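User:
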Amino acid sequence: MPSPGVPLQKLGFLTIGLFDGVDPGPGHETTLQVIELGERLGFDSAWLRNRHLQYGISSPVAVLAAATQRTSRIELGTAVIPLAWENPLRLAEDLATVDVLSGGRLNPGVSVGTPMHWDDVRSALYPDTAEVEDFSYERVSRLLRLIAGEPASTFAGREGVVEEWSDRVQPHSPGLRSRLWYGGASLRSAQWAGENGMNFLTSSVVKAESSADFAAEQTAQVQAFKAAHPAGRVSQGLVVIPTDSASAAQREKYAAYVAARTPRTRSPQGPARMMFAADLLGTSAEIAEQLYAHAGFREVSEVVFALPFSFEAEDYVQILTDIATKLGPALGWQPAG
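Assistant: Predicted structure:
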């Protein structure tokens, strides 16, 4: 439970990995460079969002495969892969492959639910099976079973002269099952993740189920997860923008970004009553004070701070450097490596 004098144990960051649709290469390269910078600065983990049909990373597993070859220590995560877009068997193969390439550093985060803009994408995503696709927790359970090494086929053995068939996903990465995370925004998701032996990612978006108090709702979810899985890991993700070394122009841009996003934090949004946490902007000392006052933060021992979506590469360098050298130490964290 972080409080002044109790050190934060793990510090990570999350990026969306924006790119130019006309020339996507430089944006992907910037994402890889940001991950490399994170390792040099001593961050414990780097995470990628998943953005389908947008100008953000659509295949975080592929990008993290590249990152495994450009880093040696930092943990690599996804926050999160929406399983409604995935075949659990094929995804299990990809995740296991990247975990092997990383030397056991992959932390896959997943979620379920109907795909966003379902009516617009269903004919392309599932032209023949849209009516029968299961977007419930069972889709996660299938992935868990396959990654754990449970049978994926009724056939195993030699066929022909050289072909050897396995009845389970290959490669098999024994430790990967314990590093699977569920990204949830509801009390039930937190409970389900714990009951099924997953770790739990709670972000800057939660459902207003019993109140319109973001911190109270997030705290209840984290406590529910811990009750169901005391040994599980739980990480909080908020948007933090330290300004210690920012230029005057950067501070002005950051303030405008936060001001544009603040109105949505004042009350639950839409039929699902989603609540958004306020972005934390200021010096590292000011942000640390706000975090210590946040009930949700006081329930966790690790965080994955989200980088703002639309900034430039030099802004991310400044923000990450300030987080690692000023905000992290203000929270009692020590850089890895």
